[in-house]
Every structure is written in C-alpha cells, then in structure tokens.
TrEMBL record:
Protein name in the entry: Phosphatidate cytidylyltransferase
EC nos: 2.7.7.41
Name of the top EC class for this enzyme: transferase
Transmembrane segments: 73-92, 128-145, 165-187, 199-219, 225-251, 263-284, 343-365
Organism: Temnothorax longispinosus
The keyword Signal is annotated on this UniProt entry: no
Entry's Gene Ontology molecular function annotations: phosphatidate cytidylyltransferase activity
Family to which this protein belongs: Belongs to the CDS family.
Annotated Low complexity bias: 12-21
PROSITE patterns given in the database record: CDS (PS01315)
Length: 447
C-alpha cells in the first residue's frame, strides 16, 4: 500500500514538473515574441529614405559652397515654387484632375506610413502584411468612393441595370470585402508573433483612418465647389511657407519641443499672413463661377457641369459695422457699412483654423517621426521629404472644412434626394409625385 502511495506521489511530481516545463516554455515563448524580434530604432531609420538629404546632383554641385542652412533654404524654396506651379496646373485641369491627384496623394501617403511598419514587420519573415495592407486600402476606397458616386451620380447609375445592383448592395459588398481581409489576417497569424501582428493590424487601420477617410472628405469638398478645396489647401500652404520664412529670418523663441525649429515668431507671422492672403484670395475667387459653382450632373447636357447662378454666399452683401467701428470709419470719412462677399467671413474662420490648429497636424507627424528617429516619411520631394510630410496638415484641414460645410453651409442635394426616390417602389414614387405636385399648386408655383 505504501509502495502504491509512493509511486502515485512520484507520478504526480513528474506530471507537475512536466506541466511546469510547459508553462515555462510558454512564458519563454511569449517573452521571445516581444524581445527577440525588436528592431533598434536607429537601424530602422537607416532603412528608410530621408527626403531632406535627397537632392539632385546638379543642384548639390551648384550649392556646395554654401552653408547647410542656406543650401537647405534655397532647395526648399525652389521645390516649393515647383509644387505651387504644379498645383495651379492641376487646378486648370479641372475637378477630375484634382480628384485623380487626391487619389494619387492618398496612395503615396499610405505607402509611406506602411513602409515604416513594414520595416519592422519584415524582420520576422512573416507573410502577408504588405499584401493585407494594400487589400484593406482597396476595400476602403471601394466603400468611400462608392458612397461619393451614389451621392453625386445617382441619376445616371440608377438608369443602368448592373450598376443599380451595385448601388443597392454597395455597403453589403463592402462589408463582405472587409470580412475577406479579416479572415485572411486571422489565417496569417503566426505563433510567437501574435502581439506584433495585432499591433501592425492596428497600424494599418489607423493609416486608413488618417489617409482614406480624409481623402474621401476632400472629394466631398471639391463637389461643393472648387473654392472649398482651393482656399483651404492654399491657406495651409501659405501658413507653412510664411511660418518657415518668418522663423528662418526672425525666429528666436522655440514654440514646441516636438519641432525644435518651430518658433513663436514663425507661428505668429504665418498666422497673420494666412488671414490677410486668405481673405485676398477669397475675394478674387468669389468673382468667378468656375470656382464657386458646385459640381453637378446635368441631365440635359449628359455630363458634369459647373455652370450655375452663384448663391448669395458668393454675391456682394452690405453689412452694418459695429458702433465702435462706425466711429472710427466716420473719423476717416468712411461709410458705416461694409460691402463684402459672405464667403470672406467664412474664409476668416478657415484661415484662423489653419493658422492655429492646422500646425498641430505637423506637430503630430513630427512626434511620429521622432518616435522612429527619422527626419522624413520619404524622399519624393527634395528639401521637403515625402508626400506625407507636405500633407500632414492638409488632412486635418480637410476634416474641418467638411464639418464646417455640413454645419453652416450645406443644403440638401437634389442628387441625394433622387437617389432615395429611385429606391422607392413605383407606387411610392407616384404618391410622392402627387404630394409634391399638390404642394406646388397650393403655393402657386405650378400652374
């Protein structure tokens, strides 16, 4: 009996030891999944391109005798003017050119963000991260751009049988595409690297939130009228350029630790310049229908059109000055009223946001880059860095403009209403028509 008890005790001890070894192995594996795969930040920085160090050979030779500070200033100035000229050329190309450019910029920004994640991910030799990232980008674009098409091309789409099916089930198809990517990710999980894979899965989705969602809002702003795209974008450019100029020549007081080169002098000088030049630009653009008319599909012409009677927002209105300003105006032999385009008052709000809040998009990007010890997201633009380095503030501005339009400007679009009408049953459409006709007759608007 004692021998049986002894054998049982020995067996239990052996089992406990084996279980302890299994637990310790699992714990060791968990530790390894975090520790053995770490990449030194300095090594990561060496694998990524640095745009401010990337300069054409000819230009480097010409400017080789100058101090680094002035050489960088000249290079930035030259390529800033190139970008401004290119932007003007794209505007001349019209809305389609602007939308295509927005899509290209979106893809490039996404690539630059994902490349940083891929530099971390590929050291494990794990599959599918890059493929999954691009798949989710395509899926997201299918959903968001499909929403835009339904909003602004509903009349045309509903007349085409196979397209109407895609419109009716657009969100369901988008969801199915996303689920395919979700299942794909789960199947790609590799034991020992779960934490890192889930971190990079979140990385991809944050990149999609920042890039794809904002580009979708930019497209919506363009459809409201080119002025709602050009003026905010130009304000960010003006603020960035003038803040750099004031900071370069007059900067003495550091502004924020995330960007040691940013100064209060540059911040204030850039803000004042943005308000003044933004108002001037708005005044000029309000006088041209090409900039102020919303982009709509014309059934009569069978194409998109930008011809309209400008709304009151873009027609001169007379405003009475506050009493304190009236006294000053009378002293200067001026009027007690002021005639301006109402859009200029909205432009003032946009310029203040772009001057005060817009730079924080750049500070956010600076913090991200500092976390990985890199100067720039890429090397596409000499002296400036990557595309994301130039558009970090633009995405924040695009969201504000879209929210501003929907809150203070936007009215119901006929295209959106027609889309909902076409989705009704025939008898419901007829009922709606009769109700609308009776209402118009009662108000004397229809004979």
């Amino acid at each position: 009996m004692s021998e049986v008890r002894k054998r049982t005790t020995v067996g239990d001890a052996t089992s406990s030891a084996a279980a302890s070894r299994d637990v310790s192995d699992d714990q060791k594996e968990d530790v390894e999944s975090e520790d053995d795969a770490k990449l030194e930040v300095e090594d990561l920085a060496k694998t990524l391109p640095q745009g401010t160090d990337h300069t054409p050979h000819i230009l480097s030779s010409i400017l080789s005798g100058l101090p680094d500070r002035w050489r960088n200033w000249i290079i930035r100035t030259i390529f800033t003017w190139f970008m401004i000229a290119g932007f003007c050329l794209i505007i001349y190309g019209g809305p389609l050119a602007l939308m295509i450019t927005t899509l290209i910029v979106q893809v490039k920004c996404f690539e630059e963000i994902i490349n940083i994640g891929y530099a971390v991910y590929r050291i494990h030799g794990l599959p599918w991260f890059r493929s999954l990232s691009w798949y989710f980008l395509i899926t997201s674009n299918y959903f968001f751009y499909g929403e835009n098409l339904m909003d602004y091309f509903a009349v045309v789409i509903n007349r085409t049988g196979y397209l109407r099916v895609l419109v009716t089930y657009h969100r369901f198809v988008s969801f199915c595409l996303y689920i395919v990517g979700f299942v794909w990710f789960v199947l790609s999980l590799v034991k020992k690297y779960y934490m890192k894979q889930f971190s990079l899965f979140a990385w991809t989705h944050v990149a999609l939130l920042i890039v794809v969602t904002q580009s979708y809002l930019i497209i919506q702003n363009i459809f409201e009228g080119l002025i709602w795209f050009i003026v905010p974008v130009s304000m960010i450019v003006i603020n960035d350029v003038m803040a750099y100029m004031f900071g370069f020549f007059f900067g003495r007081t550091p502004l924020i630790k995330l960007s040691p080169k940013k100064t209060w002098e540059g911040f204030i000088g850039g803000g004042i310049s943005t308000v003044i030049l933004g108002l001037l630009m708005s005044y000029i653009m309000c006088q041209y229908r090409y900039f102020v008319c919303p982009i709509e599909y014309s059934e009569a012409l069978g194409r998109m059109t930008m011809d309209c009677e400008p709304s009151s927002l873009f027609q001169p209105q007379e405003y009475t000055l506050p009493s304190s300003f009236q006294v000053i105006s009378r002293m200067l032999n001026g009027k007690s009223t002021l005639t301006v385009y109402p859009f200029m008052l909205h432009s003032l709000s946009l310029s203040i946001f772009s001057s005060v809040i817009g730079p924080f998009g750049g500070f956010f990007a600076s913090g991200f880059k500092r976390a990985f010890k890199i100067k720039d997201f890429g090397d596409v633009i000499p002296g400036h860095g990557g595309i994301m380095d130039r558009f970090d503030c633009q995405y924040l501005m695009a969201t504000f403009v879209n929210v501003y339009i929907s809150s203070f400007i936007h009215t119901a679009s006929p295209q959106k209403l027609l889309q909902q009408v076409y989705s009704l049953k025939p008898e419901q459409q007829l009922q709606l028509f009769q109700t609308l006709r009776d209402s118009l007759e009662n108000r004397g608007m229809l004979n």
